[in-house]
Amino acid sequence: MEFGFSDEQLLLQKTLRQYAKSELLPNYHRWDRGEKFPREKILELGQLGILGLRAPERFGGQDASFVAGGIASEELSRGDFNYSQFIQLSAIAAELLRENASPEVQAEWLPRLASGEALFAFALTEPAVGSDAANLTTRAVKQGDEYVITGEKASITLGGFADVAIVFARTGEAGARGISAFLVPLDRPGITRQVYQSPGERLSARGSLFFDGTRIPARFRLGEEREGFHSAMVSFDFNRAFIALACVGAALQSLDETVEYTKTRQAFGRPLAKFEGVSFQVAEQLTVLEGARLIAYKCLWLKDQGLPHTKESAMSKWLGPKVSVEAIHACILLHGHYGYNQESPLEQRLRDVIGLEIGDGTPEIMKGIVAREVYGREYMSYR
Ligand SMILES: Cc1cc2nc3c(=O)[nH]c(=O)nc-3n(C[C@H](O)[C@H](O)[C@H](O)COP(=O)(O)OP(=O)(O)OC[C@H]3O[C@@H](n4cnc5c(N)ncnc54)[C@H](O)[C@@H]3O)c2cc1C
């Protein structure tokens, strides 16, 4: 059994932790308070090699492992939780393209994905379906050598400023088997956007994408018709571990800050850290976070080995956000009134992390997947 990272992975961890501390953390609050997020920052991530982690080297990517993607997600979140979403969405798009697109479409889009020139969103959810995404109603109708897409995609991360979306639309019968995936450049005619007022994750401009007879070339279909839903589920299976690690990274950073704070803040003539009521809380939170972190890395390691990991993915996605929210909440309380203050990053982290208790699958749906993997499909409540 091997729990350590490779030398290369340790270097990635060290480099990104430093980058998060010096470049991201000092600016974390700015994009939350309405300052426009500069596009150059995304190109900077491209130059760092972070966006092309899962893109092939011949297209400007890194061909890195999924574990490396997890490290990037965890470390960048220590500086700015929202940066993990660039990693998640570029990794999903890179996977979907390399597995399902023609060589020409890969050559056209993967270099732009890796450089940050083309920022991708993932558009599955609709106003009437989230957990039950297999019942989506957005339609893609084939007309000659084009598809015509009509419908609304809701709650789309980066919806406000992504350049391209992987859109899941119905091309066939009802249910999961009638869904196909498409690469849709968002500058096409017939597309409008609406950004939501979110309590957190404001950098990511989550919102709706409206497609009104939007035409795309048929070659932008990813994979065969009717295989789109399966592709979405394959993406979830690694992305849920990335999400868990993003949440854990934000929580571990909060605990680091809390350890420092409670060493210096005095009460009753001694540092707060001397009270076991304080230090034991830190110990407890670190212990459960380490458990969540290990499941997430195990999931990614399984993926790298080509082994089944759906159960570990759902376990990660349930546990990681949950224990991270609890840990950050505890950190706020341990900072006293200084924690309940917008001068501290803690309250923003709490708002940000709560979003990913829901995004990519709720706790109930995650537990349903774990139960399905244990009991078998015949015991699912909705089959
Ligand atoms: C921050 C954030 C980012 C997101 N980013 C994206 C994105 O980039 N792309 C995208 O496509 N979507 C995105 N989403 C949407 C997200 O995936 C959905 O919100 C999520 O899948 C839940 O769907 P819903 O909101 O429709 O809730 P619903 O499905 O309506 O569920 C509501 C409640 O009912 C519970 N419930 C539903 N079914 C069951 C069941 N069978 N058993 C028990 N309980 C059940 C749920 O657990 C939940 O508590 C994002 C959401 C958030 C909050």
Provide the gyration radius in Å: 21 Å
**Which ligands does the model contain, each kind named once?**
flavin-adenine dinucleotide
Predict the CATH topology of the largest domain. Butyryl-CoA Dehydrogenase, subunit A, domain 3
Please state the second-level CATH architecture of the largest domain: Up-down Bundle
Ranges where pLDDT stays below 50 over 5 or more residues in a row are: none
Q: Can you give the mean pLDDT?
A: 97
> Main sheet?
4 strands, mixed
The H-level CATH homologous superfamily of the largest domain, spelled out, is Butyryl-CoA Dehydrogenase, subunit A, domain 3
Number of discrete domains: 3
Number of strands: 10
| Helix/sheet category | alpha+beta
Order of helices and strands: HHHHHHEEEEEEEEHEEHHHH
Residues in helices, as a percent range: 40-55%
Helical segment tally? 11
Strand order of the largest sheet: 1-4-5-8
Distance between the termini: 38 Å
Tell me what portion of residues adopts beta-strand conformation.
5-15%
CATH class of the largest domain, named Mainly Alpha
Tell the overall outline: globular
Please give a quick description of this structure.
The chain is α+β, with helices and mostly antiparallel strands. Helix content is 51%, strand content 15%. It folds into three domains: 7-118, Orthogonal Bundle (Butyryl-Coa Dehydrogenase, subunit A, domain 1), CATH 1.10.540.10; 121-226, Butyryl-CoA Dehydrogenase, subunit A, domain 2 (Beta Barrel), CATH 2.40.110.10; 229-378, Butyryl-CoA Dehydrogenase, subunit A, domain 3 (Up-down Bundle), CATH 1.20.140.10.
